[in-house]
């Protein structure tokens, strides 16, 4: 067994291919489109590499790939937090502690050589992408942009010297029915907030998509700046992400709150594309992409992920999140959507965690970020 860096296009193909073999018998795993994975890993297409760097490694035994990992430096993270934390991501491996030890030590060496004193992950590539290792909630499928992994990963990483840094909580709910007591209470609360603050709420205007994205940029980077591990997204990163999601946006699931004509809050809920991707075991583009678009346009997808809520710092703590949730669930019910996931939320964010439980959400998955001193 040996570990080596990805150097050629053939190596990169092996790096991308491994999970499709590794999860071949796991019906809960949703195979991403290979084209999307390749673009994510591309140092010319992914704007992350304007402020970061990474090297990908393969573990092979008797000529067969048995594991992979990426070692990642995110200079924007280090500038923001004044630290020298490096990251590992895209981690997958067979159930063998020697392979996991070899992969993580190789990534650790790469990070040490770049001046890092801590190794954190998994993050692929940052908190703005997929992050965390699933440690609770293995019996339900992941939603779009959320990781999924075998149970044994946590034990093998801990054997390799990693310790818990932070847990991330994920919630699900069937949404407060507008006609039920909980739904009526949420609607009343949202209306009280709206009137008290003199606010309006509306769906995203797709005809002004670029302007709407500009509003999201500032609120996101200003509103999340105090969160543990937060890394601001660059203009190019947000534009890149917006273009990826634009074809699957359902306007009535993306509310904007305004005060005197200025956007002060937004919510983003997207159809859970994994409902369709789970059946596309090869990860090939066609016919999966056509099927995805057809299901979205015909409103056949019955699950959503509430990806993000953002409130301008001047208006935080005023209950505006209730307005956003009420808007999403009211319109979701009108589209016959009866299930949604919200998260992730940091374990040490009691106000947000309590708020989720108050409106009927149930915590059902926990993801963990690990640290290892270098």
What does the secondary structure layout of this molecule look like, with pairings?
Elements: E1 2-5, H1 9-22, H2 34-41, E2 52-61, E3 64-74, H3 75-81, E4 85-93, H4 97-112, E5 118-121, E6 123-124, E7 130-131, E8 133-136, H5 152-159, E9 163-173, H6 181-197, E10 199-203, H7 209-223, H8 235-245, E11 255-259, E12 262-271, H9 274-277, H10 288-297, E13 303-311, H11 320-334, E14 339-346, H12 350-358, E15 362-373
Parallel strand pairs: 4-5, 13-14
Antiparallel strand pairs: 1-2, 2-3, 3-4, 5-15, 6-7, 8-15, 9-14, 9-15, 10-11, 11-12, 12-13
List keywords for this structure.
374 residues, 2 domains, globular, 28% strand, 12 helices, Aminopeptidase, alpha+beta
Structure description:
- The chain has 374 residues and is of the alpha+beta class.
- The chain has 2 domains: 2-166, Gcn5-related N-acetyltransferase (GNAT) (Aminopeptidase), CATH 3.40.630; 175-337, Aminopeptidase (3-Layer(aba) Sandwich), CATH 3.40.630.30.
- 36% of the residues lie in helices and 28% in strands.
- The chain has helices at 9-22, 34-41, 75-81, 97-112, 152-159, 181-197, 209-223, 235-245, 274-277, 288-297, 320-334, 350-358, and strands spanning 2-5, 52-61, 64-74, 85-93, 118-121, 123-124, 130-131, 133-136, 163-173, 199-203, 255-259, 262-271, 303-311, 339-346, 362-373.
- Strands 1, 2, 3, 4, 5, 8, 9, 10, 11, 12, 13, 14 and 15 form a 13-stranded mixed sheet that branches.
- Strand 11 (255-259) and strand 12 form a beta hairpin.
- It is globular.
- The model has no long low-confidence stretch (mean pLDDT 92).
């Amino acid at each position: 067994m040996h570990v080596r860096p990805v150097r050629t296009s053939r190596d990169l193909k092996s790096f991308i291919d491994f999970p499709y073999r590794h999860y071949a018998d796991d019906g809960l795993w949703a195979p991403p489109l290979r084209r999307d994975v390749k673009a994510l890993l591309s140092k010319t297409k992914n704007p992350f590499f304007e402020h970061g760097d990474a090297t990908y490694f393969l573990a092979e035994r008797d000529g067969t790939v048995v594991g992979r990992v990426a070692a990642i430096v995110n200079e924007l993270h280090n500038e923001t937090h004044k630290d020298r934390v490096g990251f590992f991501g895209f981690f997958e491996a067979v159930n063998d502690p020697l392979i996991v030890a070899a992969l993580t030590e190789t990534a650790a060496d790469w990070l040490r050589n770049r001046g890092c004193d801590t190794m954190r992950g998994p993050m692929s590539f940052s908190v703005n992408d997929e992050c965390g290792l699933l440690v609770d909630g293995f019996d339900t499928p992941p939603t779009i942009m959320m990781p999924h992994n075998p149970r044994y990963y946590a034990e093998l990483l801990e054997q390799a010297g990693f310790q818990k840094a932070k847990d991330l909580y994920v919630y699900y709910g069937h949404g407060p029915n507008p006609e039920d007591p909980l739904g009526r209470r949420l609607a009343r609360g949202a209306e009280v907030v709206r009137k008290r603050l003199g606010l309006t709420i509306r769906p995203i205007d797709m005809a002004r998509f670029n302007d709407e994205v500009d509003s999201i940029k500032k609120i996101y980077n200003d509103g999340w700046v105090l969160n543990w591990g937060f890394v601001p997204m660059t203009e190019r990163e947000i534009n890149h992400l917006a273009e990826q999601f634009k074809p699957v946006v359902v306007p009535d699931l993306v509310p904007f709150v305004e005060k005197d004509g200025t956007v002060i809050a937004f919510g983003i809920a997207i159809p859970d594309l994994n409902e369709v991707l789970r059946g596309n075991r090869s990860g090939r583009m066609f016919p999966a992409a056509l099927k995805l678009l057809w299901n979205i346009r015909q409103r056949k997808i019955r699950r959503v992920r509430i990806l993000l809520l953002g409130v301008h710092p001047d208006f935080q703590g005023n209950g505006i999140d209730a307005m956003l949730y009420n808007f999403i669930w009211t319109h979701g019910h009108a589209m016959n959507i009866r299930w949604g996931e919200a998260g992730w939320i940091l374990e040490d964010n009691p106000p947000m965690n309590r708020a989720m439980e108050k409106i009927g959400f149930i915590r059902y998955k926990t993801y963990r970020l690990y640290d290892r001193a270098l």
